[in-house]
Amino acid sequence: MVSSKDDSSTDSDNSSGDVPDSKPSVYTEGEKVLAYHGPRIYEAKVQKAELRKNEWRYFVHYLGWNKNWDEWVGTDRLMKHTEDNVLKQQALDKKQGMEKNTKSGRSAQAKPKSSADVKLDKEDTKSNVPKGKKRKADSGTEKGNVSAEKLVKIQIPSTLKKQLVDDWEFITQQNKLVKLPRSPTVDDILTKYLEYRSKKDGMMTDSVGEILNGIRCYFDKALPVILLYKKERQQYHEAVSDNVSPSSVYGAEHLLRLFVKLPELLAYVKIEEETLIRLQQKLLDFLKFLQKNQGTFFLSAYDGPKAPEGSGKDKES
């Protein structure tokens, strides 16, 4: 398929480049469709349709989700929004719930609330996981509302939300990348926050240190799986070797993406409600720290693409 990492093979017949130029697009702009994302099916709307290398590509918006997660997909990822296909969506969703009923997550069809803004997952799954495969952080119970209750509410400050939108714009629309390694790195930022908290509180609390270690651990494990856009994957493989931690290479731009995904990740962990509330407060405090240092932690502009597949406008490598 278009994505270099997309090995989807189940329905890839019509993506083999056989689509004749004269054949009209299967889907039209503005059409409501069903779109595969990993092992789930979501309602989506076709924003644009383009014929690239004899293959139709569709820019879709997932209904109920932030436009940050709009993406280009192939015909193999889409289905017509028919009654039969909706039933297929529901059956698949129920199956996922039964297979992973020990975890708590949202149903694909049940109100994709932005409180689960976790669809960072989406960007990755589409390029990494063929639609029939199961993913560890995916899934959940059949009851979307159950997971919604368990989701930690993390209110991202408005200026950081804009940062996320700009981040998406640079990479997916302008075909640019964050120059690596970043300075300060995620490790540097976590250390700076620990120093900041210690001075403010007059001591170093174990709980803050634990939370920062948790953030680092989540970041290192989540980055290659759910925090990268497809266009960033080659850069990741070039910048991070087996014995290098992503937190020592990436910076605030990618760390902020983790906080979009964090509510759903934490929903999979058994945490007492009181502890959850304290955790939520500390995470919000950390986000305020990021916001306070936004000018120094975040890039105001990204570099041209490293991969030759893009339009290497600003930099060739």
TrEMBL record:
Its main location: nucleus. Residues 90-102, 114-126 have a biased composition (Basic and acidic residues). Keywords: Chromatin regulator, Nucleus, Transcription, Transcription regulation. Pfam families: MRG, MSL3_chromo-like. One of its GO terms (molecular function) is promoter-specific chromatin binding. PANTHER family: MORTALITY FACTOR 4-LIKE PROTEIN, MSL COMPLEX SUBUNIT 3. This is Protein MRG1 isoform X3. The gene is LOC107799421.
